[in-house]
Amino acid sequence: MLECRGKGCLVLVCLAIILRSNEHYGKVLAMGIVHRVRDCPRDEKEWQKASDRLNCTSGDSSTMNKYHCLPADNLTTLLEFCYTRTRTQVVEGQCMVFIERKHIVNNYDCSMFKEGCPNIWYFMDQMYRFPACFEIDPLLHCYKAEATCQPTTWNVSVLSDSSQSTFVNKTSTNLTTADRNNREIDPLPILLPLIGILGIAVIIAILAWKNKWRRKRFFGRKETGRPDGNDEELRAFEMRPIEISQPERDDEESRLLGLEVNEISQPERDDEESRLLGLEVNEDIDRLGIDYLIHNLPSDHRTFPMIAEKLKIPQEILYWSLKNREKFVRSMKVGNIRVFNGRAMVIGCARAGKTTLVKKIKGDKDLTTTSTSGIEIHSHTFKLNSDESTIIVSTDEEKEKGCLCLAPGMLEILEENTQETSFGVNVNVVPDQSNVISPREENHIVDKASSLPSSIESTLNSNNDEVVDDTDPAVNESDQLINNLTAAAYVSAGTDRSNATLEHNIDLNDCVPSVNRDNLKMLTLLDFAGHSAYYACHHIFFSPRAFFILVVDMTKDLSTVATEACRKEGLIYSNWTYADYIKYWLGSIHTYSSKVAPVILAFSHSEDNGADPEKALQYFRQICKCLPQNLLDHLDKRRIFSFQKQSEKNVEDFKECLAATVKSQSHWGERVPISWTKHEAVLKKLKESNNVVSFSDLLRYVSETNDRKRNKEEDLLNALIFFNDTGVILFRSEIKDIIILNVQWFVDAFKHIIFDEIHMEVMEDMRDFAEFQELNEHGLLSSKVLIVLWQNSNFYQHKNSLVNHMKHLDMLAELSKELWYVPCMNKQKYPWEILNNCNVSSRLCFLFEFLPFVIYHRLVVTCINKLGMTPWKISERMCIYHKVTVLSYKDHRVLIAICDNKERPHRNFPYSIEIQINVTKPREIDTRLTSKLKEDIFERLSVLTQGILSSEFYSYVGYRCRLETFGKNVESHIITEEEMSASEYDCLKCSHPHIVHVGSIRRFWKKDEAQTHLTVGSRTSSSHPFAATEEMTNLNRVSRLMLGPCTEQLRDLLRLYIPPASFPAVIQRKRSQLKRLTEPQRKLILPNSGVYSGNYDDMDISLLYILLRNVCGIQAHNKGWGNTPDSADISVSANIERLRLARNRCSHTTEGMSNVDFNQVWSEIRAAVVDLDKVLGIGNKYQEAVDFILNDTMDPVKDKHFRDQLLEQIKDINDIRKKFERIEGRTKKMMAN
Fold first, then answer.
1. Hey, which of 2, 496, 992, 1232 has its CA 20 to 30 A from 915?
2. Which long-range contacts (CB under 8 A, 24 or more apart) does 496-499 make?
3. What's the chain's average pLDDT?
4. Residue 987 shares a structural domain with residue 1038
């Protein structure tokens, strides 16, 4: 039976070979029959001939069923077919390919072609104009025009008739015209017998080999039980969590805790949607590789860890702008290395024993400690041991190494290239601890020789500045620098300029990358102060790259107040229990780091129970009962340890857990550009004698080295952003010219400002100093106090650099050149009576799951620094308090407060930041101003939280149920917007139920439709305050243009990219990228039943913009989607963006548009419409509509009245003229007589 089945398979295979042997075999698809061809037609005449041969539609009158000849998407063959759908217009810089498995066409970015890439727009059936889009190397799966596509020559020995050996060169070459003309010759009579015989022989050999392999695999597995453990990736995949010595608990305990490793899950999402998105992303990454980063990324950020893992890159790169991602990809193509560098954060309340624990795992004998102030950074203090099972202390030399190191294999190649090309490469090598590299270490070499570019010299130093690496994809780009950061730098004269400038005797030419001979895999520890005063700067260091060690004093009852952390009464922390602090720390991790960041629990002071694991587990259960369910994802009962100060018990198990945890993180082993190793070496050299350096100086010194890279500035900028994200430096592009090299130094500078009393040595000398009291009690920092606080260090000479960084990190607000406000230092209680004589608005509430105290402080600071608000003063006293801030804005006042709502109705979101507007009686609140303020605050919160990966902070917005002054002792509760759908709301949350008139609550914050959509239909006198004006007419004329021709043009653009018939399938596939649709928009295009069946006529500009941006695959303009494009940018996305901005300008304007503004806006819209007309290929259709509306009437009824009056006047004039002529005639007759 088996033999018969084998014979049957052989017959079927032979038949398949015969059927496929013809070069023009076809397959029936939705678009017709697809044929494989040797080459595509190269001119219009040949193209037409091929079209006639396949009976495709000819002529320009029809746009469907046109002849197409495209490469397959895997670049292994060429395909011709009649495309039954509407032909597509292709943008410049793109070739087209055909995806057989999906039966669709797709674009291919040809910007890396040496020549031949289309530089104009063209239709897909005109690709014969660009032969480079056909010329592929099927063996290398690439276009021949790509610099990286090097043809491979195979020497194949073939026996001739004379029995002599000859060599046939199979290098891919272009077929001649004669070859193409003769491609119809049928090779079947010659090839079929030979192919049949060879095919049968090959198949028999394969079947025999597979049978043998199955037997070997089966018996091998039976004998060994598991694969060889030397495979690093397999070992990482099969890694198990560290088990501690604890008795197993029963099933009820497991159910209660719910913390088994395999139960820790990602945030819930729709399974089918997640599966489809994962398949789509995986397909795109398989097809594009690292180029996936330069396309539109999924809007669902929950896919980012999977993408980073798949591409083996830092996850932070995915949050960069498109422009920065493009630079990163270009650098990656030059060469990359793997990074093994972990960070652990030691957190907990004051006096919990954090510093003692760090000393214990370092092996220190002296465990005497002092209270930590600020943050102590222990860079590269630990490394993984040789078998990576635990951590050990690094040597002093190893601690000095950077996080980017070259591996032994890389070093040998560099040395070889050095000898062959005379490159001056000096490598700083730490002496080997042993002269032998074990086979296990060989498996961990950071990079492989095969992953290097063909010319590695481009990444290192060269003595010949004129040599250019042809393999660098960026080599043909413009030499213009991407950002002239130095021009916009603000440095005051005589202060930071001299200090931020490098010493001229520093020789950076000797800076070389570190070399990792021992395959060092490092771990850095950050020891955080537990006093509440220092919480203001903790969020800067929390990142998805870290894991956490939460130290808890086991002797403390979780329900007692933690007096060690906050000694001041009346503050938000004052009455916090130990359980509250644990919840705060875990909430901060959940908010600023990751929703699943691993946390190791370390229970200190366990002398009373002898560090008994059973007691630790009991205490762990008590902690779990105090926490909300989503915070339990960070914990695991296998990651709990208890310690005694004078005992080493559990220390080794703890260190093994640290090693296992750091290896399990997604960024462990990620790849970054190799050129960044040189930049890190330069930064290390500068840090030896500088804490601060200017970007301009750093760029100048980098440019003066003999590095051959042409795009030095963009490469340096990308590297600095990465080093900032990983905590090596502090760098913000918006601060322009200043780089903080010494992060510990910056933390210490801020520590001197936000001092805790027990850490302030100068306290006794300054107690009577009035300005010092202003800082200590009100958070007002004067320049005079700053001099005293920084007098014993070098902070003050870098005053502007440090203060600018603190401003941009929203750590302090600038009130004047000599006065700053530090919100976290304010300890004043809010007296609500100050607003007793005020009219107030309702309270707009942003709801939070965890205490957003840092967000509150940053919002206050950004309102002062960015929105131009100033603290309101009463009797020359600023109204700034611990939990409330009152700011002046125009002729109104804005109250910003943080509230702790522990009532039962707010259990899910117990914290809120609330906004209330007030004015002095009898003045009334301008609702136009309040609605605009709501938009501004939304925008500020978006900016403040855009770098936070774990959650959306203000997903829930609501209002207080009563219209009362903030702080007044009146019971009120928060009603979410979802609950206020009707005109009245029955509030049952209050102890005395009452009716809430929704309109009276929301009217302060809801934009008035009458203000947004103004009309000019009024017949009132021009003296009336609401009479139409020329400015209002200008606004309405632009609105008419946006609602008419511009909207219709965007609909046509959507039809070009996605025909309406294809829209349901496309939108289902891309629905994961449309998270921010409004409910009406979602119901329109994703109805609950059926599918969207319209032709886009029911879509407005807002929805069209979302679809064009997220679904159509349109390349973002140089400033990125959502931003104002450069004036010279005429790309499709830039023009779509201009129409969106013009529409928003009309919607947000209530007072008309001046003639100057009207002319500017109209000119911008018209230019965008003209460019989009060209894209659509429809002549001047919408341009003519724009010109018509410019001169058309805005009131047909009134104009008809004026025309009738004018005609009546003309008639009267004619009658008068006729009467005059008659009188004149009579007069002449009388004169004649």
1. 992
2. 496/692, 496/738, 496/797, 496/798, 496/799, 496/800, 496/801, 499/692, 499/797, 499/798, 499/801
3. 74
4. no
Q: Which amino acid is at 1189?
A: I
For residue 994, give Cα distances in angstroms to 396, 916, 957, 987, 1030. 70, 22, 21, 5, 48
In angstroms, the CA 29 to CA 372 distance is 71
Which tokens sit at 151?
Answer: 């043809």
Tell me how far CA of residue 535 lies from CA of 575, 582, 724, 838, in angstroms.
Answer: 16, 14, 20, 35
Judgement on whether residues 440 and 455 belong to the same structural domain of the protein: yes
In order of 269, 352, 586, 1158, the CA distances from 633 in angstroms are 16, 23, 10, 55
Q: Is residue 217 part of a domain?
A: no
Distance from C-alpha of 644 to C-alpha of 647, rounded to nearest angstrom: 5
Q: pLDDT per residue over 723-741, tens digit each? A: 887 778 888 766 667 888 8
Q: Report the candidate in 78, 77, 76, 68 with the shortest Cα–Cα distance to residue 31.
A: 68
Statement to judge: residues 840 and 803 lie in one domain? no
Considering the entire predicted model, what is its pTM?
Answer: 0.54
Tell me which of 804, 827, 850 is where a domain ends. Answer: 827
> What would the pLDDT profile of 320-330 be if each residue is shown by its tens digit?
778 778 877 87
Q: Where are the beta strands (DSSP E) in 828-935?
A: 838-840, 844-848, 870-871, 873-874, 877-878, 884-889, 892-900, 911-920
* Sole residue written with tokens 């190494």: 401
186 domain residue, yes or no:
no
pLDDT for res 661: 94
Q: Are 811 and 750 in contact (CB under 8 A)?
A: yes
C-beta atoms surrounding 664 within 10 Å: 13
Among left, alpha and beta (phi > 0; psi -120 to 50; other), residue 519 is left
Q: Is the dihedral of CA 801, 802, 808, 814 positive or negative?
A: negative
Same domain, 808 and 847: no
Structure tokens given for 68: 């197409």
Range of the domain at 1065: 1030-1194
- Say whether both 924 and 1049 belong to one domain: no
Domain assignment present for 102: yes
Q: pLDDT tens, 860-893?
A: 999 999 888 999 999 889 999 999 999 999 889 9
Contacts of 180 (CB under 8 A, 6+ apart): 38, 39, 41, 42, 46
| Strand, helix or coil for residue 328 | helix
For the chain, the first-to-last Cα distance in angstroms comes to 138
Name the burial class of residue 123, with classes exposed (0-12), middle (13-18) and buried (19+) by CB atoms within 10 angstroms of its CB. middle
Q: Is residue 910 part of a domain?
A: yes
Q: How many domains does the chain have?
A: 4
Residue 42 token pair:
């190269």
Identify which of 942, 937, 955, 933 has the alpha carbon closest to the alpha carbon of residue 1004: 933
* Pairing relationship of beta strands 819-821 and 884-889 according to DSSP bridges: unpaired
Contacts of 634 (CB under 8 A, 6+ apart): 548, 586, 589, 590, 596, 597, 598, 599
Kindly compute the dihedral angle of the four CA atoms of residues 623, 624, 630, 635, in this order, to the nearest 10 degrees. 80
- Are 896 and 932 contained in the same domain? yes
SS3 of residue 149 by DSSP = coil
Q: Which residues pair with 919 in a beta bridge?
A: 839
What's residue 187's pLDDT? 53
Judge whether residue 1070 has pLDDT over 50: yes
DSSP 1042: I
Give the range among 562-576, 1015-1029, 1051-1065, 1171-1185 with minimum mean pLDDT.
1015-1029
CATH of the domain at 840: 3.30.310.50
What are the DSSP E strand ranges found in 585-721?
Answer: 599-604, 640-642, 670-673, 692-694
Place of tokens 């021992």: 518
Q: What phi and psi, each to the nearest 5 degrees, are found at residue 183?
A: -75, -10
538 and 400, same domain (yes or no): yes
Is the same domain home to 406 and 518? yes
User: What percent of the chain stands above pLDDT 90?
Assistant: 15
